[in-house]
Amino acid sequence: MSFIPLMRPNITEDDIKTVCEVLRSGMLVQGKHVEQLENRLIQTFQGKFASALSNGTATLHLALKVLGIGPGDEVIVPAFSFMATANVVELIGATPVFVDIDIDTFNIDPTLIEAAITTRTRAIIPVHEFGLSAEIGEIMNIAAKYSLHVIEDAACALGATENGRHVGTFGDFGSFSFHPRKAITTGEGGALLTNKPDLHKTVQILRNHGIQMKDGEIDFSDFGYNYRLTDFQAALFNSQFARLPQIIETRQKLAAIYLSELKAYPQFKLPSVPPGKNHTWQTFHILIPDYIDRGNVIEKMRSYGIGTNYGAQCMPFMNSFRRKYNLDCHRHFPNALKAYLQGLALPLYEGLTPQDIHVCVNTLIKST
To answer: Positions modified as N6-(pyridoxal phosphate)lysine (predicted)?
Structure first.
């Protein structure tokens, strides 16, 4: 049996041809293909402004910077996510305030947010984990009540919707990643969406060294970054983007097969999709029983030719945050800790077949 990886990007010959055309042109840095990428996001998500950036972490960092968040400020983040969500808060000089998740959705629990708000709170970063919208309507209401900014971390959720509206279009900013594990990849890359022209203008300046045109000449109006996306990366995105509906549909069908096959095994907690949400299934993430060693399961499945891994981190449980804040995760973030310690991501990508899923499920049973 050939190895079934956790993820395999679906790069077609047309995608490769498109990138090669840009490479041969010699015009490699931010240019017309980046502009096309941004326009496609605006048109598809019915937003007003989009900026392509070098990666999904840069998008979050720049969003915080543009909103003026820094030392002395607090930013609410879910306790369960990829580390970048909280790392950027630290890197900007602010303090991440962790909130536990809903164990059924793996998203931040909105009923716990208000208790975490203080006079220093400036923003909330809800994560649409694994491609499922957080309770963004409730979160926006809380943010409005306390005059807080909202930066949607939609790194995993390109194309996901809440009651028909695309995630990433609710808050001050919507942040997307185009890492190889995402539905569409540019290798590294990301985009920042906003409906506010002043925020967009500042993003455009800061992503390119602080450059602003003045009287037809280049001026450096701020201390900026090199967060630009290359044109050949953008060309790769544009070549794939037309397939996004098909990619999401395929992932949803594959997830449905997993759910159908795994429902016969009640020892596993399966992901759920609340009404009104369109899950894009960047990751198919289950919980295994606490009496089973997750590390052994991963090793056994790899020996049988199946790639698996944990899905995300309980961020305050990681050494960097544990050393700095010494938080009791068992007491304060039990769901996030459970999702991390018992979580298992199973293979899910467009090239996977129903037979592959059957093999993955049978191997999981054999490995637990």
So the answer is: 182
d(CA 284, CA 295) in angstroms, rounded, equals 18
pTM for the full predicted model: 0.96
Rounded Cα distance, 265 and 361, in Å? 10
Q: What local confidence, expressed as pLDDT, does residue 214 receive?
A: 83
- Residues with a catalytic annotation lie at 182
Position 340, amino acid: Y
Q: What is the DSSP string of 209-224?
A: TTEEEETTEEEE-S--
CA-based nearest residue to 62, from 77, 50, 72, 48 = 50
Q: What is the pLDDT of residues 200-256, one digit of tens each?
A: 999 999 999 999 988 888 889 899 999 999 999 999 999 999 999 999 999 999 999
Q: Residue 267: pLDDT above 80?
A: yes
Interatomic CA distance for residues 226 and 35, integer angstroms: 17
* 3 state SS of 239: helix
Contact between 236 and 189 under an 8 Å Cβ cutoff? The reply is no
Tell me the CA distances in angstroms from 301 to 2, 221, 282, 345, 349, one per residue in order: 13, 54, 20, 12, 18
> CATH number for the domain including 323?
3.90.1150.10
Residue 306 corresponds to which tokens in the numbers above? 């199946």
Q: Which residue has the tokens 């989009």?
A: 50
* Residues 309 and 199 reside in one and the same domain: no
Same domain, 268 and 208: no
Tokens 């609340």 sit at which residue?
274
Residue 1 binned pLDDT confidence (cut-offs 50, 70, 90): low
Q: What is the DSSP letter of 357?
A: H
Q: Is 328 exposed, middle or buried (0-12, 13-18, 19+ CB in 10 A)?
A: exposed
Shared-domain flag, residues 263 and 353: yes
- As a whole number, the mean pLDDT across the chain is 96
| Dist. CA 212–CA 206, nearest whole Å | 9
Tokens of 156: 């995993």
285/252 same-domain check = yes
| Cα distance between residue 219 and residue 273, in whole Å | 49
Distances (CA, A) of 214 to 8, 40, 217: 45, 28, 5
